[in-house]
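Dear colleagues,

As part of the handover before I leave the project, I'm documenting each prediction I ran so the next person doesn't have to rerun anything. This entry is a single chain, and its sequence is reproduced below.
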Amino acid sequence: MLAARRESDPTSTMIIWLTMMLRPSLMTLVLISSFHWSLGCQLAAAADDLTYEQHIRPIFRAHCFDCHGATEELEGELDLRQVR
C-alpha cells in the first residue's frame, strides 16, 4: 500500500525525474570542466616558453624599430629600445 502511494506522489515523481535528468548533465559538466582545465594547463605551459629575445624582439625589429628606436629621431616619442 505504501509503495503504491509513493508512485502516485507528485513530489517523489518530480525528484526521480530531476535526478534522472540532472545526473547526465552534471557528469557532462564535470567532464567538460576537467578537459577545459587540462587544456588550459597545457596552453599555460606552452606560453611559458615565449621569450622577449627570441619571439618579441624580432617582430619589433622587423616592424617597429625603424621609426621607434633605430635613430635618435623617434616618432611619437616612443622609444622601443628601452622596453625589456
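Residues 50-84 form one domain. Helices lie at 2-8, 10-47, 52-63.

All the best with the project,
I.
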